[in-house]
Amino acid sequence: MAAVQRSPRSCLLAFALVAAACAPEGCAVEAPSAPLVEEERVYGAVQMHLSPTGLHAGALELVPGLTSMMPSRLYVVVPASQVSIDGVDVALCENGCRLTAALGEPTVDRAPPSQALLTFPASVEGTLRLSGAVSCQLDLTASLSGIAEAAFGPDSVTHNLGARLRSITLPIQTSTLTLTPSGCPDGLDLGPVADALIAARAQLEQALLADARPGFEQAFCLPCETYSAGCPEGSTCEADGYCHDGAGECLFFPIGILGSADLAGELPIFHGPIRGELQVVAGQRESGEANPLIDANLGIVFRLYGGVEAVDALSPCVPSGLSALREPAGIDLAGEASRIEELSGGYHVAFALTEPFLTRLAESFYARGGLCLSVDRSLSPALTADSLITLLPSLELFAPRGAPALIDIRAKAPPRVSIGRGELATVDGKRVLVSPHATLVVDPLEISVYTVVEERLARLLAVEAEVSVPLGIDLVGAGQAQRLVPVLGSMADAVRNLRVTYNPILAESDETIVSVITALVGFAQLAFDGGMEGFGLEPVNGIGFEVLAARGVLQRPEGDHEALGIFLNFVAAPAP
Question: What's the domain range around 439?
């Protein structure tokens, strides 16, 4: 993926593993052209559960960096008012009195169903002036615990998830105030002044909110240059540099990962270029259920929509379009975890990668020509008429030895993904996939063989079959040193209903050709076995990850599962 640097502000909003491509200096993604259109969104594509223990593990907060959005110092003005002191009317702050509020590091709490409460210590100081019948000044100091309420929800245009600062509460009481008179008559009753400040609390809170809101909300707002095509349709770029809807509210910056990806690079094996704009972003329909779902006991559940931009025109090698989108069911990851032995000690965070989303990604790859492959001698030097003659001797009657050959592979229908239980066992010292985590199904897959006959490239034969490729992940090691190793399941039953659909010249029977193709599939597994070293999970914002379990979750009546659940703990990341 080509990359452009994005500001650290973008990384600030990524939840745990969702922002896996962030470095300290920014997030590296290529800007997409526009938000994913509604018709291409799989809502609930990825579902995330942050457990109560995960909320407080290490330095993790409700939203990484959320606390840093509050300014450290604010200024508020006490409005003019009249107070009665010892039966005499006195003007308090006739021209307004400016107070300074120094805000300490806030802590985050949950407020169901979709609010976060930031409790922050505030030290307030300043000078109050009395004028009229009594003329003097009062030095004010106060130690408060303010509460800022941030409400999560979607914006009205992109439906991306963000937060708006809704209110700030200052619990001012007489006991929290200290008034030190200067130049005032001895024995002056200061109680009415304290009462006046308490009475003006609502105005002070609104003033504090007005000062704090811009810095907080701009951390969530969508910069005009985020998308290469500019602000999304239905919004405008305003003078502050952010996209706003018709009501003046800013649109939300995508919380997640998005960008334009070259899905196939420049590999000649594919029939054409395969590009797509992948987006996996926290969001919801405008009228949808609260997201995030914040529960005091269960923690926090986030749902992300995902998908790849629409295909303007199917690849010429693709015979049919995509299936209709299916919205995934909601996954109770905490409930599913209770049935998994490895999770008896709990977990910090869990993700559900849903089958409809994974199938949509596979279909999108297919629609762009990703399952139309051509293998020739430039990629496999051993692929010549000689190698084919070894398997199919009658070919020697038509093709000269050393002649180039080509194998063309095409999916004739969209692929689908099936989620299994996901279990491995050790057999004779080797890790074996007992139940796949996922199975990629292509039905039918057509394989055509070409070689040079009488100085022209001729199609010798074609076969079709239902192909099911079982895939798994093995967890090797622990902590930050853990590696995730891909495992290919048994290919013994991977090819079903294999049949010859074209054979105009070869003398071999259909049964012989089928046995040859079946043997080649077995060789493919031998080449794959033991060939993958695996990969580790990179730390995000100084937090490392250990996968505790990967299992199919929410079993369907048909026996497969709605999603692949991945359960993790946060671990200390190694020093850079």
Answer: 311-572
